[in-house]
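Exercise 3.2. Students should predict the tertiary structure of the chain below and write it as structure tokens, then compare their answer with the key that follows.

Predict this chain's 3D structure.
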Amino acid sequence: MKTNLTAGLTLALTLASGLRAQEASPEIPGLEKAAKDFVAAYNKKDAAALAALFTETGEITDLDATDVTTGREDIQARYEAIFEAPDAPKIAIEVDSVRLVGKDLAIEDGTVHATPPGDDEVATSMDYSAVLQKGEDGVWRIASTRDRGDASDVAGQLAGLAKQLKGDWTATRNGMRLDIAFGWDDSGNYLTGEMLATAADAKPVKTTIRIGWDPSRETITWWNFDDGGGFSKGDWTPVDDNKWLIRTEGVTEDGEVTSANQTLTFDGPDAFVWDAGERLVDGEKQPDIEMRVVRQTPEPGTE
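Answer key:
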């Protein structure tokens, strides 16, 4: 599933470029300063400074309106929790519009992009709306902000899953060994995997995996092609931050129709459990499979 790295991050006000549409207004410099102060405080991980950019009763509402944070004290605590994570991202903002709707009120719509640390990490994006209020001291502060919708590009939709899957993995079961390697393809729009299944009494089977984003159905989809000519495809449905449901259908090299309901449950950053149930081959039920897959330890000198 896509990890929601931008939850609670869509509080940024604006970049200067987005405010130029109302350049004639004398309020623009104050709005620009509020924006710059917010981005600077966030990227410095200064939760207290961020909370001070809100009104006393400032409010943060997430996309589903199930999580509402009100007041500076709770807002500061929210950001402190975000910044405790080792993968707390940096943010950048694109502003679509800023409307001055009264002497002391402004409404802003835009998109915030959040990029975790790391050389090959990709950004996730969220559309937001914010209401800004000017205080008696002449300072613009955030009165409320709300997530409006996921705006991530293709790579962003896969970013959370990529973070979990990237790398080399291995598993053994009943004399069979699986070796799997996942990473981004050259375009940066797909995750690709190579899986090799070996056993003492059987021919090795190599499977090529491709995982992408279907924008028409707004779901993660994968395709698997084995070197014998069989293939399968299916959709990934997130259950929570660490668990996926995967419904897969396909055909073998002999034309037999296959299907299975699978779950992939991550157990920390270095292991996951793969369960395959309701397995059918040409309508005949097959035994369930459960495997614990662990991250391979890099060989000395390879990191």
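Discussion points: Residues 1-21 have pLDDT under 50 and may be disordered. The chain has two domains: 16-151, 157-295.
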